[in-house]
Task: inverse folding
């Protein structure tokens, strides 16, 4: 079966697009799929460091587009997962070095040999974003439960609709259940009410995300991490499986345990 | 502000965020500024007034959203006609 091409985008920067791509790629590859992820952020590449593959880069996507190497030569195999590959962005060029039709051609070459192609879109709604969505079968929008991130997500969803790339699916990243419980953070219901698109996953705020990015081993490898579990669930949903949403209740807190013991939860 | 809110300080901030986003998204999605909406309201009043007398002061115009689509809602009270008023006073 030809690959499913999924673009991860957001409008606003810093909401966790690259983290999402790295984790979904790791989760899908761990679940036995052949995965290629493409860093679409030319000039500001980061997917390589999040995956811990920065020392292995020889060629990048611009080298492929400009004919300096074959596609296979620019594909870096992951250290742990032999069915996971990265095509890195160029660091010293700008977004105009690649066009939407270059992207489509490249993806067409990848489709027959892999199960999933994940594209990490840059922030914004300009050329890099257009490149990233050009060949997508499905677009996933990442947002945070914050006013500016939700506003930008809405803008991107509107553009995707106009470009007939929709309906997009939503990942609500970095949700803090305690703040939501206290009424100081937009809840998943609030965000869905505002954006009115399908929710594909909620990722709780988790310090393990930072720790794992320091080490270059995405949190989806960590079986104990809540965020890792959330990303593994999203990966299954992308593969068409039905996975129940995990409970957002804070686990393990002192008061929580007392309440549990008292049978109040 | 309700009793509980007064007791515990200010209103919860998530509610503020949602309300503000609702307004911002309507304007973002329709590309209509509040000023443009006002001018639309004036045009509507002028057009409808050619056919029937309306209470221009009481006209309300706003946006509502239904999923991802927007709806323009206008509430335009019509002044009762002199004929009907005349009948009312005569009865």
Result:
């Amino acid at each position: 079966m030809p690959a499913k091409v999924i673009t991860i985008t957001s409008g606003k920067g810093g909401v966790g697009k690259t983290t999402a791509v790295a984790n979904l790629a790791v989760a899908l590859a761990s679940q036995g799929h052949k995965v290629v992820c493409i860093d679409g952020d030319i000039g500001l590449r980061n997917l390589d460091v999040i995956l811990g593959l920065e020392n292995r880069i020889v060629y990048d996507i611009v080298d492929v587009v400009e004919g300096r190497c074959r596609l296979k030569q620019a594909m870096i195999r992951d250290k742990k997962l032999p069915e996971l590959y990265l095509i890195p962005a160029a660091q010293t060029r700008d977004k105009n070095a690649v066009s939407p039709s270059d992207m489509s051609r490249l993806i067409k070459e990848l489709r027959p040999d892999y199960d999933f192609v994940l594209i990490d879109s840059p922030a914004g709604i300009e050329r890099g974003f257009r490149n990233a969505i050009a060949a997508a079968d499905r677009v996933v929008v990442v947002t945070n439960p914050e006013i500016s991130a939700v506003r930008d997500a809405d803008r991107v969803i509107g553009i995707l609709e106009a470009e007939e790339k929709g309906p997009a699916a939503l990942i609500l990243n970095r949700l803090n259940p305690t703040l939501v419980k206290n009424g100081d953070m937009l809840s998943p219901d609030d965000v869905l009410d505002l954006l009115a698109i399908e929710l594909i996953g909620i990722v709780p705020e988790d310090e393990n995300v930072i720790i794992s990015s320091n080490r270059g081993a995405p949190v989806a490898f960590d079986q104990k991490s809540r965020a890792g579990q959330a990303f593994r669930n999203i990966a299954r949903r992308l593969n068409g499986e039905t996975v129940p949403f995990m409970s957002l209740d804070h686990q393990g807190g002192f008061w929580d345990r007392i309440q549990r013991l008292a049978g109040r939860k | 502000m309700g009793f509980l809110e007064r007791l515990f300080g200010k209103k919860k901030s998530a509610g503020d965020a949602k309300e503000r986003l609702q307004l911002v998204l309507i304007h973002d999605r329709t590309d209509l500024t509040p000023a443009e909406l006002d001018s639309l309201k004036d045009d509507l009043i002028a057009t409808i007034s050619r056919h029937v007398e309306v209470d221009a002061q009481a006209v309300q115009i706003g946006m509502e959203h239904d999923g991802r689509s927007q709806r323009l809602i206008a509430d335009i009270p019509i002044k009762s006609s002199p004929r009907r008023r005349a009948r009312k006073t005569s009865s």
